[in-house]
Amino acid sequence: MKFGLFGGAVRRGETADSASYGDFINFVVAADKLDFASIFIVEHHFSGIGQVSASLSLLTYLAAKTEKIRLGTAVTILPWHNPILLAEQAATLDLLSGGRLDFGIGKGYRDLEFKGFCIPKEEAQERFDEALEIIFKAWTSSERFSYHSERWNFEDIIVEPEIVQKPMPPIWTGAGTPSSIQRVAKNGFNLLLDQYGSFDLTRERVDVFRQACDEVGRTYNPAEVGLTRAIVLTGSKKETAVAKEARAKRSGAMSKFGRLPGLPEEPQSYADGSAPVDDAAIIGEPGEVIERVMELREFGVEYVLTLATGTPESLNNFAEKIMPAFADEKQSLGSAAQ
Amino acid sequence: MKFGLFGGAVRRGETADSASYGDFINFVVAADKLDFASIFIVEHHFSGIGQVSASLSLLTYLAAKTEKIRLGTAVTILPWHNPILLAEQAATLDLLSGGRLDFGIGKGYRDLEFKGFCIPKEEAQERFDEALEIIFKAWTSSERFSYHSERWNFEDIIVEPEIVQKPMPPIWTGAGTPSSIQRVAKNGFNLLLDQYGSFDLTRERVDVFRQACDEVGRTYNPAEVGLTRAIVLTGSKKETAVAKEARAKRSGAMSKFGRLPGLPEEPQSYADGSAPVDDAAIIGEPGEVIERVMELREFGVEYVLTLATGTPESLNNFAEKIMPAFADEKQSLGSAAQ
Fold it and tell me: Chain B residue with minimal CA distance to A65?
């Protein structure tokens, strides 16, 4: 079992579980020292609550402040970016971090962002596919190349600096429905599973992914499935109740941005903040949390991204009280690199 | 008299005075400790010799590694970028560095880059002007706004995080001809003067800028004029001769990328690498270098950006042997912030 982090800073306004950039940086620096495996950072634009917009920039800053922790986007929304500038920025991060980039990508889901960039949502998949093709070409070409389409035109270019992880960094993408999960398996990408899916739903998704891997002749590697979870360690039953209530409120607040892609329409989904989230979030005293995480392991989840909330102290608490229960297996999991 | 640095790392290939990213970072970290005022980093694409492409990314990394040094682009080529993503990245750097961003901007000059991005050179000025308008709007709007043109469309957006330096970071732009220098004065921007202009030409340019400032009712502030110079400290006449020859060769190698914008067509210009550069570069033993820098001061240059070449040791040498000659006046120069 391996633990990473998922989240981001906020600058403007406050939400229940978000930190200022400064606090967030201290948090990630502490996580690096405590042997958390990764930090995956969201990218959002025009949120009005100051969510991270330049996630590669923030990760590049964190690259300088940390030694070992892997630096992930979760996810970079390809349709917003010039694919060549993005390839350059990601390669620069990969270089400066000594090959610690985990490149998480998505096609976008927030209406506010499609509207803001004036990009029709119907074009999201097409733009995503095209951008990815260009980025892969940019990272793997050691010679100059050209690319021409209705949308993008590049002539006789070579992207510098070279990417450090060869042939390219691990590619992560979120998925929820069977067909989208099957596509991830087929494309050879790593799978990000969201924080809102119940345990049962998560088990189903892992099964779909495992089976899809089998079908395309890919070995199922649990290091290539990252499951985001809200994990809150409490000291008493009363604290547990308070934390569960706060979690439900927070989910409700985030639901205004719309539904995550690939999620089935069911009560526990992202868009329905009023639904009970108890079964997705892991909230409780250390023994309870360990037990819940072991349940995940039973159905094949061995890489959990806990929400990057709280303080360096709470992180330390997690490292002291939860990680040792899984310490023996940590080494056997291997690298998440493709 | 204030000293900053100008340059960039390279990843692929070698030129006489370029460092790897790792060496370059060590160099800037040393400069920060030695009280150099700034590092201005170039942005180039598809150079084939690995020049820095994601200059804001590299500066964001350096923000984490340094304490006081100002972090400049020299320059960010606006026509290559989505202005809103650029505004977000620059604001993120300004936030993470505690307000140390110096935003240098240009419209591009290398044919290789116009060709690479498939952007007609004739559109450079128009694209530059439009991008700048959008970026300024993005940084100064505390409410959501929309922008629509043939080229860019944004609806109901707000750029986050907020810029830290209010109303915005210092804006720097290169200029060489009288009309372009006058425009810089009129726009309220800071002026970057290039490393290839002779002493006489530099004096003329400063005079043009000073007069243009008078004409628009702007007080001439020498902290708002950054002059780039190749400065090489030698230990003997023989070393001086060798360094001058190396400098001439290097200028020749760079001339293949084309002429910097705003430069008059004359022998000492950027594009003509075979021309003598002795009168632009400052190469010599400490006493000679101090004398030359004092000449610059006499005609109003009090902010010199030395080429970021050499090693932390040579930087230390510069700080020990040159800076003390100008130490008394350092405080009187004040900030370069607008």
Answer: B64
